[in-house]
Amino acid sequence: MNATAEFNRKLKQRFGFTLYKYQEKVARDIIELLESRDRFITVSMPTGSGKTILEMLIAEYLLSKGYERILVLEPTRFLCDQMHPNWRELMNVGKEYEGNCWSFLAGYPVIISTPQTALKCISNLKNKFDGVIIDEVHHAITGTYYNELISKLKPKIVIGFTALLPSEKVYDASLSKISETVGELKLLHYDFRKLSDLDPKFNPPKALVDIFDSELNEKEIEIYNLLYLGALEADPSIIHFLERTFSRYGKKALCESFFRVVEKGGIGESPQTYEIIEFCRDKDYSHKARTLVDVLTIYNPELNPKLKPIIVFTSRKIAAYEFKDAVVRKLGIPSYKVEVLTSDLSKEERKNLILRAKRGDIDIIISTLVGEEGVDIPEAGVLIMTDVPKSALRFYQRLGRLIRISSPMDTKVFVITMTPKTKEYEDLSEAVRNLYWEGVDVSYILINLEEKLTTQRLIDHIKTLMKRLNSKWVSYMLLTQRNELKDPIEYYMQVLKSNEEFRSALTERFGELSEEEFDKWTFMVVTTFFLRAWDDKIKKAMREVEKKLNRGKVVNDIDRLIREDKVFYFYEPGALSGMVLKELERLREYCIENQEHFCENVFFRFDRKGFLRLFMNILPIENLEDIIEHLKERIKEKEEIFGDIYVRTRYNPRSKVIIAKTSVSVSHEGLYIRVKPQFHYYNFSDNSRFKEKKLELIELNVKDICYRAIEEFYVRQE
After folding, report:
1. Most exposed: 23, 136, 400, 506, by fewest CB within 10 Å?
2. Cα-flanking dihedrals φ and ψ of residue 671, to 5°?
3. Which domain of life is it from (predicted)?
């Protein structure tokens, strides 16, 4: 049985379809070159023609011929995620793009990775992969990683696939080091017409889509994390605005917005403020400008006039001017062939710009909102969105500059640049979804869109801190504020007491209070739900305080990761046990003052989500078992001394919270004290596959808190 026949059998069995006639012909052409001992082959065929299926066929063919391992390179993390499930249906495939090298070390015969990650893991790769398949190989024109990786890896075969080969001359020159390693490039080129001749059933798409990850550099990551984690001391709405400005438009837009907010008094002096100011003094191009240069290196109108005019969209004027400067300086395109279309131009200037573009005198138009509607921009050969508008209308208006009535063979290029691990991927998903529900055909835009969100950034940050601390978990405060709190209870109480609205509301409710009385009532309000219910002003003040203590988008991402079973948490027992202890001592004093022998509090609760966050220890879900065993060992001795503590849990499906109740009893000198604390654990999914283990952790966590309080109570009575 030949290679295509065997592969068709597998396709039919797993997916229910077989190769198209034109795919079989392309496969035979590739195999013929391989059998002729050609070692560097690039296949150019359009989007929608099934390159991925052919990549899988060639991987199977190479493995059947004795090649030990195949490395499949994708230009972005997004494509690694998108391709891996399909590959996995046909063969044993690993995926690696975060740089921990686990999949490489696991011995998968096929690994899907980015070139950046493969280079990070090169010490584990040498002499291990004798075949390399490069998807979207035209990205290698701007990617120095590809040449460096191949020269170090020294594979026997390199096969590239691409939807577009803008310039064979540029492509060949950019991959000269690969040629030095594996020999002369052999190109197989199939355009729409050729594929249609091979198979009349082939239908070309309206547009092909190319996604570029707009990567932050090391310093940009530091500044972005400062905003994302809420470390900057400012109102949460300001932090969210600056974070999104940075990821969507780049450094210059961030700095422009940052200084405006500072001038208006929205951001005060702090080490983080000066850190951003210092960052803004650096005049390097932003990550969005750097990526645009990469895109235009590939889709260069000077080398391929058919692409003209190229339209670049951004929503910020400062970014538009930065883009022009970067393109002119870095690519050497004459300044008069790159124009910026913004509201700064008069009506006559805009009209003149459009006339020049229609005559073919302008190669690139960089446009802000004014170019999305109301301006008769010529039909684009390439449309580049450097940011993604959430509005379906604006998204569609931009696309309208690309997709107009034209020949069905005239397929256009739609390029999107997005910052990995930021809200941009979610914006794209939402825009595409809105278009779909409005009846717009979006099948040619993106298929099987899998979000690449800030949640992955958060997981990375958690694991980095865990590694640094040699720990199985990391505290919420260290995660978000860069430092641990020695006493989170005192921190929370001080912030609450310094809030003027809270002080005023407490005074109105309980009259003039000494500082000691104020402390006592603050503690009571925090732990007693019906005291808060007495006064809306108290509840409002507490919400405002907790909002400021939980800044940054990281708060929502933590909730999301918990719901998705990516992470879980337990409360820091040392801190919360202090509050249980404080209540035991308060009741003891009350008994003595009132000559009672038994005092109890059945209303003692830890139920405020914003307060409880300060005590969270967050762990990756894969560490759940380890933490459970750790807690079991920790409380075993205490159970033998103080007896068993029974914890009762119930689930509130409306608020998705586990309510854990228990009873803590102590006695001393004829006094019997009992507190019945209640602990709330939020974002609990009743359908979680880790449900039982999570409940076990919660029960152990509650016991640990209470045993510590009991032990410390008796120590203090000695």
Report:
1. 400
2. -100, 140
3. Archaea
